Amino acid sequence: MELIFERSVSGRCGVRVPLSDVPKAPPLSEALRRKEPVRLPEVSELDLVRHYTNLSRMNFSVDTNFYPLGSCTMKYNSKINENVGGLFAGCHPVLALIPGGESLVQGPLSLIHGLERQLAEITGMDEVTTQPLAGAHGEMTGIMVIAAYHKARGDNKRKYVIVPDSSHGTNPASAAMAGYEIVTVPTAPYGDMDLDLYRKAMNEEVAAVMLTCPNTLGLFNPHIAEICAIAHEAGALTYYDGANLNAILGKVRPGDVGFDVIHVNLHKTFSTPHGGGGPGSGPIGVRGDLVRYLPTPRVVRREDGSFTVEDHPEGIGRVSDFFGNFGIMARAYAYITMLGREGLIEVSEQAVLNANYMMARLKEEYELPFDQTCMHECVFSAARQVEHGVHAIDVAKYLVDRGFHPPTVYFPLNVKEAIMIEPTETESRQTMDAFIEVMLEAARLARENPERLHEAPVTTPVGRLDETRAARAQQVCCE
Amino acid sequence: MGYCPNTPDDIREMLAVIGAGSVEELFSSIPADLRARSFDLPPGMSELELTRHMKEKAAACGADVVPFIGGGIYDHFIPAAVDHLASRAEFYTAYTPYQPECAQGTLQALYEYQSTICRLTGMEASNASLYDGGTAVAEAALMSLRITERHKVILDASVNPLHREIVTGYLHGLSAEAVQVEPKGCASDLDRLMAAIDGETAAVIVQSPDFFGNVQDFRSLAQKAHEHEALLIVSCYPIALGLVASPGEMGADIAVGEGQSLGNPVSFGGPYFGFIATRKRFIRNLPGRIVGETIDHQARRGFVLTLQAREQHIKRHKATSNICSNQSLCALRGLIFCAALGKKGFEELALLNYDKAQYAKSVLGSVKGVDLLTKCATFNEFTLSLPTDASEVVQRILEKGVAAGVPLGRYYQGMEKALLVTVTEKRSKDEIDRLAVLLEEALWS
Prior knowledge:
The complex is a heterodimer.
Chain A: H1 45-56, H2 79-85, H3 106-123, E1 127-129, H4 135-152, E2 160-164, H5 170-177, E3 181-185, H6 195-201, E4 206-211, H7 224-233, E5 237-241, H8 254-257, E6 261-263, H9 266-269, E7 284-286, E8 298-301, E9 307-310, H10 326-362, E10 378-381, H11 383-386, H12 392-401, E11 408-409, E12 418-421, H13 429-448, H14 450-455, H15 467-473
Parallel strand pairs in A: 2-3, 2-4, 4-5, 5-6
Antiparallel strand pairs in A: 1-7, 6-7, 8-9, 10-12, 11-12
Helix pairs in contact in A: 2-10, 3-10, 4-5, 10-13
Chain B: H1 8-18, H2 47-59, E1 66-67, H3 80-86, H4 89-92, H5 104-121, E2 125-126, H6 133-148, E3 152-156, H7 161-172, E4 177-181, H8 190-196, E5 201-208, E6 214-215, H9 219-227, E7 231-236, H10 247-250, E8 254-258, E9 274-278, E10 291-295, E11 301-305, H11 312-315, H12 328-365, E12 371-372, E13 377-378, E14 381-385, H13 390-398, E15 402-403, E16 406-407, E17 418-422, H14 429-444
C-alpha cells in the first residue's frame, strides 16, 4: 500500500487550526527558526481515515484472529476496560506534584494504590510499585533494587546474575543494563534448569537468580523452593519473571515460594491490549527488606483514608517520568476488580485446561520434547517435519493462510524448531479444534506436498519478506 | 465473572481427551507446600457495577482544572480522527509484528512514524519509539557511551529534572557518570557547558526549549563537542519543532524527546512514548525496535522488524538494550496526529502556541511585582519571578480552579519564587487574562 507521504497533495489539509485570539508576537530570531516547514503529509481527513483504516485491515489481531502466541498471553481484551481506561484522559500528572493539587487527584491515586494492593495479594509480595513502563523495564528496575540492597549492606563483591538458558532474552539484557555479568545455566533433560549445575554456579559473588515458573517450556518446576533456598543461603536474592503468571493465579504465589522480587506484565496476565508492540506496563513487587529501595515517588494511604505522593528517600530514584503507564494500569485494575477472586482462579484453570487439550491433540503429529502435563502453554518441535524439508516457520506461514496467527516459533532457544502454543483461557474448544485441524493438515502437507508450505503465505498483502535485504539496505524512513 | 467460554460439557470432554480426571489434576505438578497461602480478593463485579466504581474514581481527577502546567507534559487538542483510528481493534489488539505478513498494518504505520520523527527532528534514522521522554534521554546517554566507548556525559541542569534523575539512575550501575552543569540564572550556561567538554566526554545533553522554557542556539556547542569527538544530544518538544530549528539543524547527533504532545492525552502520567533519532552512521547503536523497508519474492514492497541482531531476544546480555516492548500504539497516535495536521497545520499550531505564550508573557509579566526570569527567547513556556513563595501562590489560585504553573522550588534550590507557566493553543485569551487577575489577587489582596 502506498505511504501516507505518497498520498500527499500540496495545499491539502486535514485539520483546521483555530484562529488566534491574541495579537501576533514578534517572530523568533532567524537563527532559532526552522528553515522550512516540517515535510508532513498533506491529506484531507477522509484520505487520512481511509489510509489508516485500510492499514489496520492488513493486521491480524485478537479481535479478528486466534493468536496463540506462547509466552505472550494474547487473551481477549474486554471492551469495558477500554471504556474505563479513557476516563482519566484529562488528568494532568503534574497536578499531583503541585501544592494543593493532591486533593484534586484522589481518584487516580486511589486507583494506583488499589492496583498495587491487588498485585501484592496476587503475587504474595509486601509492596508493589507501578512505575516501570514495560516488563523488561520492570526487570531492570527489580535488579536495580537488588543492587541497592546489596550495596546498602556493604556487600560489594556480587557481580553476577544467574539465568537459565531457556529464559527470555530480556532477563540477561536487563541484568546487564543494571551493571551485572551473566551466568547462564543449561536446561536438564527433565526440562528445568539443571539443579546440580545451578548449585555449582551459585556463590557469594552472585547477586541474584532470575527465573520464570512455570518456565518458558510451560512446565512448573517442582524444585523451585529449593532453588530459592540455595540462593538465599549464598546471600543472593531471587527474581521472578512474571511473564507466565497467567498459569498460576490463586494457585501459587511467588512470594510464598521464596521469591524476593517479581515483575508483572499487565498486558499479559491482566488483559490490557498489546497495541501492536506496546504500551506495556511492568509493575514490580518486593518483599520485606527491599521495600525501602523501591523507586520514588510512592503513592501512600494516610490514616484518614486519603492518598498522597511521597518521595522515597532510600529508593533507587525515578525510573519513569510519573507513576507509570496509568491508562494501562486503569485497565488492569478494572479487569482484576471485575473478575474478582473466583474469576481470576478460573482464568488459570481454563488457560491450563486449554493448553493441555492442545498438547494432547497435537502430540501425535508434532514432537513433544518434554511430554508431561503443561501449564498455560506447551512447546512442540517441528523436528519430524524437518525430515521432509519443512521447518517451524513454514508451518507458521501456512497457518497465516488459514486465518490463524502463528504460535511463537524458534523460542525457547533450547528447543530446536520450537513451536510454542498458548491458547489462553478466552478461546473456546471450537476455535481450538479449528486450529488443531489446520495444524494436523500442515503436518500431512509436510509429508505429501511440502512445496505448499514453502510457498505460504499466499493470502496476505505481501508474501515472505526478504529480511536480509532489509538489514542490508537499512531503509528505515522515506526520503 | 470472566471471559472463559467453555461449558461444563466442553470441559468434561476436553479432560477425557487429555486423560485427566479433573482440572485440578492438571496442577498436580505443584507440590502442596507451594500452594498459595492466601488469595484474599473481593468477589467480582458486573460490568454495570464496575462502570459506576470507575466513574466515581474518575470524578476526582482534576479534569476540570484549567491547566497552565506543562513541565514536559502538555495539554494539546487531539483531533477526533486520532482516537477513532487508534481505537481500531486491528491496531490495539495486535501483538509485536514478529510475523510481518500478517502485521503489515502495524509495520507500515511504524515506518511512517519513523519517517515523521526523522522529518521533525532533522535526523536520518529513528527507532519505532521508546517508553517515555525520560527513559529516551537515558537511552540516548547509554547510546553515546556505546558509540564513543567513554564513560562520562555532561548533563545540562536545565534539562527536565525528572529526566535527569532517570539518566543518573540508568548510569549508576554501569560505572558511568553524569556531570551536571548548573544553569546561569534561569537558562543553560553555554560557556560552562563548553568548558566542561573534554576527551573523556561521551556526550553533552541539552534540552530545547529547556525546563525554564528557553530556546537557545546550540550550534557552537555542537561544534565544541565534535572537536572533542563527543556527541551532542538534544531533547526536544515536538510541537515546538513546527517553528524552532530542529536538533539536526543545530548539529545534534542524537535527538530525543517526549512524544505525548503528539496526540496522546495527559492521562495522569501515561501511556506516552519517547522518541529517539540519530544520524545514519549510528543506526546500529539505536536501542529498541526498528522497522525497515524490503520486498517479497514478487518484488512487492513490505516492511519488517530489522537489525534485530542488536536486540535482546537474539543478543541477550550483549544487546544494545533490554527493550522488548515499544509504545507502538502511542507512536501510532503521534503519527496520525502529525498527518492530520499536515505540513501547514503543524506550522500554524506551533505559531499559535508561540503567539499565545508571548501574549501571556506580556500580560503576566506586567502584574505588579512579577518579573520575567527567562530572558532568552521562549516557545510556549516561560518562567516568572514572583515577589513571594510560588507554591503558596499556586495553591491559592488552584482554589479558583486554575493551575497557574509549576513552582520551581521543588526542583531547583533557591528558586522558591520562580513559577513555570505553560500556554498551549487550548488556552484562550480570556483564560490568560483571568490568570493575570488571579495572580494579582493572590499576590496583593
